[in-house]
Amino acid sequence: MRFEFINDFEAHASADDVWAFYSSPNYPKQVVQLLPTILETKEILEGDGHSVGTVIRVVYLPGYVPHTYNEKIVTVDHEKRLKEVQQIEGGYLDMEFTYCMVSHEILAKECNSCIIKSAVHAEINDEAAANGSIIHNTLDGYVALARAVSKHIGEHHAKSAN
């Protein structure tokens, strides 16, 4: 069975500024700083933190499910402003999912406005399909991230203007 959860968040920041955040080599560290009530760590195991092939170990704070997993960046398309990250070990794969990938696409709207389109794509064995709804929790975290990124960029620009 396949699941797909999508959220479009309107950010009050330019698509270029938002993409610079999502494609930054500091992305793993910055995400933890922006979501201190959700994430414990994002540790780079292989690669540079922002290029295809990078492997990152993600650890959530106690109480979040899944608690930990390894993910691999499988797509970084600067032209489309698209980043895709696939779970490769632990996490939902330990919960009878056969596939779990998250994508972030930054869609330009106006000069200082864009859409952060976050999607969670997952597949689970038909026998375990009742567990499929738990994946929605992952999307909630990415919605919180989109809000935090928009706010962070706005605050950064306000400081720069002073």
UniProtKB/TrEMBL annotation:
Residues 4-152 form the Bet v I/Major latex protein domain. It comes from the Eukaryota. InterPro entries: Bet_v_I/MLP (IPR000916), START-like_dom_sf (IPR023393). GO terms for biological process: defense response. This is Bet v I/Major latex protein domain-containing protein. It comes from Papaver nudicaule.
